Amino acid sequence: MRSGALTCPPLRTRKTPMLLRPAASLAGLPPALVITTEFDVARDEAEAYAAQLAAAGVPTEFLCVDGLIHCTYWMSGAVPRSREIHDAVVKFVRRSLGA
After folding, report:
1. Does the structure show a pLDDT above 80 at 11?
2. What is the mean pLDDT of residues 81-92?
3. How big is the CA angle at 36 (ends 13 and 77), to the nearest 5 degrees?
4. Model pTM?
5. Could you tell me the CA-to-CA distances from 90 to 32, 81, 87, 94 in Å, in that order?
6. Can you spell out the DSSP letters for 25-92?
7. pLDDT of residue 1
8. Cα-flanking dihedrals φ and ψ of residue 80, to 5°?
9. Quick one: which of 29, 37, 34 has its CA closest to 66?
10. Cα angle at 19 between 12 and 42, to 5 degrees?
11. From CA 94, how far away is CA 87, in angstroms rounded?
C-alpha cells in the first residue's frame, strides 16, 4: 500500500514542493541514508526509494530496523532501541564528512 495515497492530495492539485513528483533523474545526488522500521507505513516506499537511488549511482545505505514502529527515532525516552537508529545516523554523517 502506498501511504502517500492516504495523506496527499492528487498530484495535479499539489502546491507544496515536497509533495511534487520526484525529479526524472536521481543521479548526482549526495550519499544517502534511508532508514525505516519493520512496522512503518512507508517501509516499502523507503526501500524502493533506496533502490532507485542506488540504481542511479548514488551511494546509498538502507537500514530497516526490525521490531520497531514509525517515528521510533523521536522516542528515545521511551524506546531504548531508538539508539540503534541514532547510532546509524551518527556513523553515516561521520563517514560522509570523513571524520
Report:
1. no
2. 95
3. 110
4. 0.74
5. 13, 15, 5, 6
6. --TTPPPEEEEEEEE-TTHHHHHHHHHHHHHTT--EEEEEEEEEETTGGG-TTT-TTHHHHHHHHHHH
7. 41
8. -55, -30
9. 37
10. 120
11. 11
